[in-house]
Amino acid sequence: MIDSILPLRAIVFQMLFLLVTIALEGLVFFKNLNLDYKTSMRYAAVLNLFSTFLGWVIFFEINLFLPEDIQRQFISYIFFDRFFPNPWFAAVTPIIVITSLAIFIGTFLLELNGLELLEYLLDKSKNPPAPTEHIARFQGRRDQIIRFQANTKAYTVLVANAASFSAILLLLIIRWIEQNQRVSG
Amino acid sequence: MIDALNLILINIISVLGVLPWRLILFILIVLFVFSVIFKFGIRFPLLTLFGLKEVFEPLAKAVIPTKADSWQSLIWISIFSWITSLLLEGYYQVIVASIGWIFLIPGFHWFMHGDKIKKVLTINQIFIAPWITGAVVCLFLFASPTEVPRIAFVSWPIISAVIAGLPKFIKSGSEFKIPAPPDRLELSILLLFNLLLSCWIQFCFSTQVWLTQYPTLRADDMSNSAFVVQLNPQDRPRSRGVDILNEVEPLLQSELANKSWSQVERWLLDFNQQVSTLQTAVMNQIPGFPENSLWRLEGRVLPGREYAVQLLLIWQGPTADANGYYFSKTCEINQRRQVPNPKPTQIGVDVQCGTIEGPISGVPEPTQ
Fold this sequence. Notes:
The structure holds 2 protein chains of 2 kinds.
Chain A: E1 5-6, H1 8-32, H2 37-65, H3 68-80, H4 92-121, H5 132-136, H6 141-151, H7 153-184
Helix pairs in contact in A: 1-2, 1-7, 2-4, 4-7
Chain B: H1 2-18, H2 21-50, H3 53-63, H4 71-87, H5 90-111, H6 115-121, E1 122-123, E2 126-127, H7 129-142, H8 150-165, E3 170-171, E4 175-176, H9 181-213, E5 229-230, H10 240-257, H11 261-269, H12 271-285, E6 295-301, E7 308-315, E8 325-335, E9 349-353, E10 357-361
Antiparallel strand pairs in B: 1-2, 3-4, 6-7, 7-8, 8-9, 8-10
Helix pairs in contact in B: 4-5, 5-7, 7-8, 8-9, 10-12
């Protein structure tokens, strides 16, 4: 009934990544979106849970249509953290690169749309724009561009995503170093 | 520990199945009649006489509804429907039992909102009653007496989130309302988090499906994985390779049994071809898993011996060992010396195989 092999590590890792991501993106939202601290954290939580959930759904869907050999590579990665020699072995690295890029862009687009959806849900899309834009008009041209950029949602979400993805990458590199030490030591 | 848990669960289920429900029903009815007599006739004098009043009074207070709209009445209605359903058969039983469930669920949910129980069920300021009720709802919707299907587990968090969020949609005076914007934010976090929980549960099932398709993986070491944990790494099952290689031995014997010695020698000359037919034969015998195509049987005639063959079963699938691994088994093929036997064609062939070696890391050296 209860299996002795469970994906508990995946769950713990995902919780850790989500916590880091929400904290970082919440900070970015707090600085750029004129929200109070608590609300920006909640915004970050909603957007990240939203993109993670959709990511899982896409994962389960794709999993149904994967060719057997790629699925085996995938199983190998999940259970043993490595790939094994089969016809797809050489293609693994490009596939990973493309997939990571797709995940980054996909997450960005999902969170951007999620943000608009959330503001619509919270009746905020009708609110007047923040007054900082008017002040910007009286300042230097370069400053104006920066301020304009800083106020767009897309820019905010992009920065937030870049920050959180870098943090996750850092964590993954730390794990990789730690594992290499264990193997060699 | 998990095995022990399983055993306990299985025992409970089997005991429930064996219980004489009709007898229990009879006893319940008798108890009910007695309690009615108790209440109107001899309850108070008798209870005070035996000093039992202190024991039964709080119990009675807890169980007997004081108002019409209370959780006790809902539970009593569900118990009544359950008892009635035991007397019926077929579809009627199902319908009446479902009505019982429909009253039991809100009654149970209401019961958990009692002051004392609410305090117990609140962990870290989160009131977990909706998830308990959600589990009951999932059992009602999906479970059969023999098994709880996957969908019940996967939908459990979602249903619980809906139950937990419902109060925000209700105005006092039991009217529908749209929650205020701050509540909407909370509600979306609640819903999305529970959807994520569902995904995790679904992922648990996915790994289980893969393990049933590729049972050989269970014998391997998963300590490197970033996704899964082996709860008892010391207690891994035997690799399926051993079973497959054991199946090859009788096939080899039956293949050589009716051959003369010169036929055997000719057979051995083309050993690679023979091994591939052996492989197809053994794959037809063992249970068909998707992983079967990842096992490859190879063989070679060992030099300098008349005759010894080595059978090699190579795993070409996912494994923790970077070099891969294989199993090997050496079989001696000898002429059976039966001198008194008059017919020369019936001189038999002895095939004796040693124990299986392995798993040996790496790829076997190519045949000379």
